[in-house]
Amino acid sequence: MAATDEAADGLRAxxxxxxxxxxxxxxxxxxxxxxxxxxxxxxxxxxRSLAALGMLESRHGAGTFVSALxxxxxxxxxAATVDVLPLDGLLxxxxxxxxxxxxxxxxxxxxxxxxxxARLREVQKRLATSEDExxxxxxxxxxxxxxCQASGNEALAALADVLRARxxxxxxxxxxxxxxxxxxxxxxxxxxxxxxxxxxxxxxxxxxTSHLSQTEVWLRRYGxxxxxxxxxx
Length: 233
What we know:
By secondary structure, the chain is mainly alpha-helical. The protein contains eleven helices and two strands. A two-stranded antiparallel ribbon has the order 1-2. Helix 7 runs antiparallel to helix 8, helix 7 (114-129) runs antiparallel to helix 10 (178-197) and helix 8 packs antiparallel against helix 9. The protein starts with a helix and ends in an 11-residue tail after the last helix.
């Protein structure tokens, strides 16, 4: 194992065991190097790699600290990987995204307040009238993010957002059935809003599953290109 990997593994173990708690500053380099049995160069490379993964953060003039270790922050590295997936990879993610967002919708139906409902209705109203494709993608993502955040589960909401992000690069709004797709999408959102308003977790989960399944069908049917690139084979 490379010295940099040994240093990274050692730091991860210290964090996992609670020796380096969230928000705590890392010990001085000489102390860490001696404990981990690595050079300063290897330690610094390890620190940079863990910072990129959201485990550590550098504070100008203060040093390096363990991050708050919040789910959204920790999934940042995963997000960068998901964001380059080709269409077939994105379609595989629907098998993961469907149950996640169904659970999020069910929890939202049990926990959401009137403020969340008002936000969902506002976003959907703008979606229904927007003629700008980029704006529709942004509003669609905001709708689903709002619903997932209303679940009250930060890890679930963060992971769902990561899985959802790549989808905005594949547009189905230019497909031959564009108007049908748009209408069905809007109706899917309305079904979610109604289920949350009725405080019906089962109906919310079913609405989320149906909505995402229909989106997957359209993506498979039309095989859109990512951001105007070469069409999917």
